[in-house]
Amino acid sequence: MIKKNFLRNTGTFLVFGGPSIFAFIAVIVIPFFVGLYLTFTSWDVRTADTAYIGLANYIEVFQDKVFLGQLWFTLKYVFFTVLIANGFAFFIALLLTSGGRGEQWLRTGFFTPNLIGGIVLGYLWQTLFSQVLPYMGQKYGWSLFQTSWLTSTNTAFWALVIATAWQLIGYLMIIYIAGFSGVPTDVLEAASIDGASRTATIQKVVLPLTIPAIVICVFISLSRSFLTYDINLALTKGGPFASTELATYHIVQKAFLSNQYGVGQAEAVVLFAVVAIIALTQSYLLKRLEVES
Amino acid sequence: MDTHRRGSTVKNILLYLLLLVFLTPFLMIIMNSFKTTQQFVENPLSFPESLRFENYVSAYHNMDFLNSFLNSMIITVVAVLLILFFSAMTGYLFVRFKWKLNSIIFFAMLASMALPFQVIMIPLVMLYGNMDLLDMKTTLFFMYLGFGVPFGVFTFHGFIKGVPFELEESAFIEGSSRLRTFFQIVLPLLKPVFVTLMVLDVLWIWNDYLLPSLVLLSPSQKTLPLSTYNFFSSYAVDFAPLMAGLIMTIIPVLILYLFLQKHIIKGITEGALK
């Protein structure tokens, strides 16, 4: 009897869970552990050598000034992208939650950049930054745009931030709108009866009550911008002179173009640790500001 | 009342202006995709003198548009169907059978959602390369299934928890099997979750560049983002057809969006707030 039950349960497990669990293990679990193991070997495609070398790869990562510089560049990029994208998204969402006519259309419109993938988006902005803006700069004498932003490191950095934020704003806006609609109307009415100004209401009522949405939005924008690859590839291709390579771009180059798999993988693990620490810290800090309505 | 209404009209005008600025990059590209490259370089702000569709024709040929469009279509449709179907089944398994093994796997799936793709990317390509499985659509379907399953199972799990067990119980009493009960009673109830998940997965897979670029190597296999990249890196100075190419890759998702916009917006809200 017990045996029959066991067989039946195994059957249920395999039928309902078999394909998806198999794929999950084969695509995520095994590569994850193999990847961790590889960071402790002197793994190089050319020599096919996989000797155990302990922490040497990690030491190499932390001594590699180029990678550390790119990690710093990535952190700066993530910081400004998250800040700008969330600021705009929050502001637009605020304007779009009074339930007026046409709001549906406006939401639809603001979301559109999110439909297009990073490659197309990157080339779209590349055309603007390299052709349209310099034309306007020269015609109207705006010194800011006279040369293409993509030819100097500092301006190329901002080009990356703007293109990424442009894509993210619509997505975050939708989540903020959902967050605002969760603010109970009676609380808002109470605030207006008490004579609170609009700014005060937003600051003291709306903001604390939408902390969960802010946590999610910051998390989403953090993880998306840390992973940026295709926008980087299409917009700057790491240039000028490899000065705008974001972490992912660098890892792909290292692993698949210069065949240093072990070091590349160690860099990926370091990047993962950085992302995890920042993501956890932000949600911990923001959650402390949360209040019950 | 009147001042209120006037205030909201001013706000709406402001918002439409803001939207116009926000969408200027699109408008610029559309406008210039109808000019010659020379006209574009001379003055990117002028309106086109006539609608030149030659750019579209030449982009269509140079991008091998039809082939890559079909590749993208096949990959997206098959991968999304696989993810939806198998995640629903596994979500059901995890809700209805509280075995130790199930909760361990469920926990592992939750944890894996925090894992960035980069940590898996290198060993993944190496392992499948060693088994000679790269450059096949089947491999890509399988990988998308693996990457899509954790979030899919999580989403279905949350929804199925709320489905009353009594519904299934009566079916069991009448002698219906587990599988039949699932397909005839549970599955139809999951329709809203299917739509939500479908939207999120279609946007992800259709636009994905990195994974296909590592898996699909031969030109005939290329998806739209891959062929856009190829097209751009090899014709980098001929702007007019390039812009037409961009518009052509945007149009398919735009059409989908116009049909599904309500679901897309709902899908993102629910996907994020889960």
Automatic annotation (TrEMBL), chain A:
UniProt KW keywords: Cell membrane, Membrane, Transmembrane, Transmembrane helix, Transport
Superkingdom field: Bacteria
Protein's cellular compartments: Cell membrane
InterPro entries, per database record: ABC_transporter_permease (IPR051393), MetI-like (IPR000515), MetI-like_sf (IPR035906)
Membrane topology: Multi-pass membrane protein
Coiled coil: none
CDD domains to which the protein is assigned, alphabetical: TM_PBP2
Record GO cellular component, one term: plasma membrane
Annotated ABC transmembrane type-1 domain residues: 71-282
Native source species: Paenibacillus woosongensis
Pfam family, one: BPD_transp_1
Biological process annotations from GO: transmembrane transport
The name this protein goes by in its record: Sugar ABC transporter permease
UniProt main location, coarse: membrane
Transmembrane segments: 12-38, 77-98, 110-136, 156-178, 205-227, 268-286
Stated family: Belongs to the binding-protein-dependent transport system permease family.
Entry-linked Gene3D superfamilies: MetI-like
UniProtKB/TrEMBL annotation, chain B:
Keywords in alphabetical order: Cell membrane, Membrane, Transmembrane, Transmembrane helix, Transport
SUPFAM superfamilies in UniProt: MetI-like
One Pfam family hit: BPD_transp_1
GO BP, one annotated term: transmembrane transport
Subcellular location: Cell membrane
Annotated GO CC locations: plasma membrane
Coiled coil feature spans: none
Regions that span the bilayer: 12-34, 73-95, 104-129, 141-160, 181-206, 239-260
Principal place of residence: membrane
Family annotation (Gene3D superfamilies): MetI-like
Membrane topology value: Multi-pass membrane protein
Start and end residues of each ABC transmembrane type-1 domain: 69-260
UniProt similarity note: Belongs to the binding-protein-dependent transport system permease family.
PANTHER family: ABC TRANSPORTER PERMEASE PROTEIN MG189-RELATED, ABC TRANSPORTER PERMEASE PROTEIN MG189-RELATED-RELATED
The protein, known as: Carbohydrate ABC transporter permease
Organism: Paenibacillus woosongensis
Top-level taxonomy: Bacteria, Bacillati, Bacillota, Bacilli, Bacillales
